[in-house]
Q: What sequence folds into this?
């Protein structure tokens, strides 16, 4: 009896508006990625479907483990990212003091890199206070990735919401969630004979993950300065939402030292730290190595976009080829264009992390 087999499907990635991505002369054609292999339930027994699903999951996990191993190796050879501005050191000291007075902590993360945008000391600072994890920029990942992260956080019993601060997606749900927590807190105060008060919440997270944009959406007006670059919010800013919630917008907080260079490189790729803090060419070269190992055809994306076959090339050689082809040999220009193309969705909307495997922490 012949064995049933279905090849690992390629992920069809949505492409951003063409006007934002047509800057590369050879990349104006419409993408035609291979379609997934679909098999009807009647055609394949359930136990075989489960076996193939498990096998596919294992292949994908192996690919992500290889990516993490490669990024760790490349990052260990040089400190590509180094950044800790003085205003963040000051803001961290103030924030740690303020958190003690808060009722609710809203931890905003970048949905493309939820682990890299989680401060390693945040759990210690929060203690037993109510925490809501907000995965912002959900528009920049696929639905399948969103569902995987939702399942992961649910398994960790972490209250998680997905938002798009630019368009307002999920913001109303965030407002309802925080106000619901506020009501619960005041009900407990009344039961103890205490007067109700406005509940205090703080929005925390790494630079440029969209905290201020979310607050402005909640307020329905521009209260907090926001811009698509790190380091815009420099001071703690209070805002009143309704009659029962005071919300504090805090500057982006990084660890005292970026010891995890693999995470720091992901922050740089996603523009969650400033360009002055990292070597653009070094970060872009690592990004090419990551794409080549993506389980859903990352090398094909590079080939389709730049008409350069990345297979068999190192990240540095690919950048050199791209620089010679489009930027008169300027490697930094080529590196910056590659990173900008990813940030704009010209390579498709996709995350750079996979939920932790069994035995690994959040």
A:
């Amino acid at each position: 009896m012949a064995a049933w087999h279905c090849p690992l499907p390629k992920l069809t990635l949505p492409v951003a508006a063409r006007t934002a991505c047509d800057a590369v002369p050879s990349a104006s054609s419409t993408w035609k990625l291979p379609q997934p292999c679909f098999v009807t339930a009647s055609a394949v027994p359930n136990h075989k479907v489960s076996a193939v699903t498990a096998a596919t999951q294992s292949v994908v996990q192996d690919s992500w483990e290889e990516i993490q191993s490669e990024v760790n190796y490349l990052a260990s050879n040089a400190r590509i990212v180094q950044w800790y501005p003085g205003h963040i050191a000051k803001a961290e000291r103030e924030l740690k003091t303020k958190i003690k007075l808060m009722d609710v902590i809203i931890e905003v993360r970048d949905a493309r890199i939820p682990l890299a945008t989680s401060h390693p000391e945040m759990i210690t600072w929060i203690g037993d206070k109510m925490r809501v994890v907000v995965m912002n920029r959900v528009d920049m990942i696929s639905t399948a990735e969103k569902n995987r992260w939702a399942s992961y956080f649910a398994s960790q019993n972490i209250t998680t919401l997905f938002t798009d601060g630019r368009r307002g997606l999920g913001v109303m749900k965030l407002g309802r969630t925080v106000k619901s927590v506020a009501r619960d807190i005041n009900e407990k105060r009344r039961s103890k004979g205490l007067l109700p008060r406005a509940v205090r919440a703080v929005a925390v997270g790494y630079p440029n993950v969209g905290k201020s944009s979310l607050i402005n959406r909640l307020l329905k007006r521009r209260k907090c300065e926001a811009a698509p670059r790190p380091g815009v919010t420099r001071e703690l800013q209070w805002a009143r939402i309704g009659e029962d919630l005071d919300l504090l917008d805090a500057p982006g907080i990084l660890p005292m030292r970026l010891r995890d260079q693999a995470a720091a490189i992901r922050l740089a790729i996603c523009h969650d730290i400033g360009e002055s803090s990292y070597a653009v060419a070094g970060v872009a070269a690592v990004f090419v190595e990551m794409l080549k190992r993506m389980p859903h055809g990352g090398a094909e994306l590079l080939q389709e976009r730049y008409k350069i076959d990345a297979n068999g090339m190192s990240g540095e050689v690919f950048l050199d080829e791209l620089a010679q082809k489009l930027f008169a040999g300027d490697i930094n220009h080529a590196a910056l264009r590659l990173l900008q193309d990813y940030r704009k969705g010209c390579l498709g909307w996709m995350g750079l992390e996979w939920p932790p495997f069994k035995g690994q922490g959040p």
The CA atoms of residues 101 and 200 lie 8 Å apart. The radius of gyration is 22 Å.
